[in-house]
Design brief:
By secondary structure, the protein is mainly α. It has 5 helices and no strands. Helices cover about 55% and strands about 0% of the residues. It is globular and about 40 Å long. The N and C termini lie close together (about 10 Å).
């Protein structure tokens, strides 16, 4: 049986904002990378709409972080 884990999705916008600041990138840069509008990135960062799994994967790859880190989760060990 798969163990359920809760995660705080509101933290994603905060973590993305931190990554952008630390890397001198803008919402426009991220929008270009994800092939979406800057307005949509703003909505996602403010929690008006959610980041997709695709978004999370691309952000994790771009900034060399894990999706677990973006979601403020501990990695789940597969047994």
């Amino acid at each position: 049986m798969i163990e359920q884990h809760s995660c705080n999705y509101s933290i994603v916008g905060t973590r993305v904002r931190k990554l952008l600041a630390e890397n001198g990138a803008s919402q426009s840069d991220l929008a270009r990378d994800l092939n979406v509008t800057r307005s949509l990135i703003s909505q996602k960062m403010h929690g008006t709409t959610s980041f997709t799994i695709r978004d999370l994967g691309m952000i994790a790859d771009r900034f060399n972080v894990s999706i677990d880190w973006l979601l403020d989760r501990e990695p789940v060990e597969v047994k």
